[in-house]
């Protein structure tokens, strides 16, 4: 911090110079995720600037997600979590999405079997009470980080044997000519309960995105009804919008 005043950004406001110094230290790994930042007072003394200036730089970095503040215990470098940016305009599978990013995908099975359908499943998939539904529920993990819990339901006419899904559901559907070509997706916010939080390896009550996907074949036939829970700290869903009336 002693060099903040001497950095090559002459003319830039002091708080911006301090901000840059801290950002550089994080980027270069001089201070790493979880490390505590010295107190405002210490930084102000070392850098020979006012505490107000230090506070402004720190607040900016907290807003930007570089630092986190825990009441009573201080300021820390935020844990590194590269967020996944997911397009909302393409119908892709989890396996494809992660492979494109060079990430290694793995799933833990939560359920894979054939059941009498629930009222929701009957309505969405157009099943009668006499028919059966195939359920494929997984914890989806990329590069060893659990990202989502996915519970897919399909008619057994489409997926008679859920055990046939070994890695990718969409690949299994593609083999039988049933890969969906269109989907409607609904996203809503929810806080995680104990059990789901444990699976996703985050504290109970953390933010999550609940996603419901109903996908269709080109013929209009419903193929998939999937309810997923995505970690709120890991995903950005991005859509391109065009001027419309
Ligand atoms: C995506 C879909 C999910 C689909 C899965 C297939 C969302 C919210 N969900 O994760 O509905 O079942 O991909 O992935 O995008 P897979 O082919 O890798 O099993």
Task: Give a verbal description of the structure.
The mean pLDDT is 91. The protein has helices spanning 14-27, 40-47, 51-63, 94-100, 119-125, 169-175, 194-200, and strands spanning 67-70, 74-77, 84-87, 105-115, 133-142, 145-155, 182-191, 207-216, 222-231, 235-238. It is elongated, with a radius of gyration of 24 Å. It is built from seven helices and ten strands. The strands form three sheets. The chain has a six-stranded antiparallel sheet with strand order 4-5-6-9-8-7. It has a two-stranded antiparallel ribbon with strand order 1-2. It has a two-stranded parallel sheet with strand order 3-10. Helix 1 packs across helix 3 and helix 2 (40-47) packs across helix 3. It is an alpha+beta fold. 2-acetamido-2-deoxy-6-O-phosphono-alpha-D-glucopyranose binds next to helix 4, strand 6, helix 6, strand 8 and strand 9.
């Amino acid at each position: 911090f002693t060099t903040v005043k001497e950095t090559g950004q002459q003319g830039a406001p002091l708080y911006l110079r301090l901000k840059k110094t801290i950002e550089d230290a994080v980027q270069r790994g001089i201070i790493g995720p979880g490390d505590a930042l010295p107190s405002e007072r210490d930084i102000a003394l070392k850098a020979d600037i006012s505490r107000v200036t230090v506070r402004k730089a720190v607040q900016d970095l907290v807003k930007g997600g570089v630092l986190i503040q825990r009441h009573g215990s201080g300021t820390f470098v935020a844990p590194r979590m590269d967020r996944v940016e997911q397009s909302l305009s393409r119908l892709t599978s989890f396996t494809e999405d992660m492979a494109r990013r060079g990430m290694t995908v793995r799933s833990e099975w939560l359920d894979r079997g054939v059941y009498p359908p629930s009222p929701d499943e009957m309505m969405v998939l157009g099943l009668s009470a006499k028919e059966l539904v195939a359920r494929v529920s997984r914890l989806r993990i990329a590069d060893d980080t659990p990202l989502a819990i996915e519970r897919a339901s399909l008619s057994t006419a489409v997926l008679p044997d859920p055990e046939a899904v070994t890695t990718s559901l969409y690949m299994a559907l593609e083999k039988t000519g049933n890969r969906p070509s269109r989907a409607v997706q609904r996203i809503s916010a929810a806080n995680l309960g104990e059990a789901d939080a444990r699976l996703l390896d985050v504290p109970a009550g953390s933010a999550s995105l609940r996603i419901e996907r109903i996908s269709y074949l080109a013929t209009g036939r419903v193929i998939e009804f999937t309810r997923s829970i995505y970690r709120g700290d890991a995903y950005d869903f991005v859509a391109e919008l065009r001027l419309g009336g």
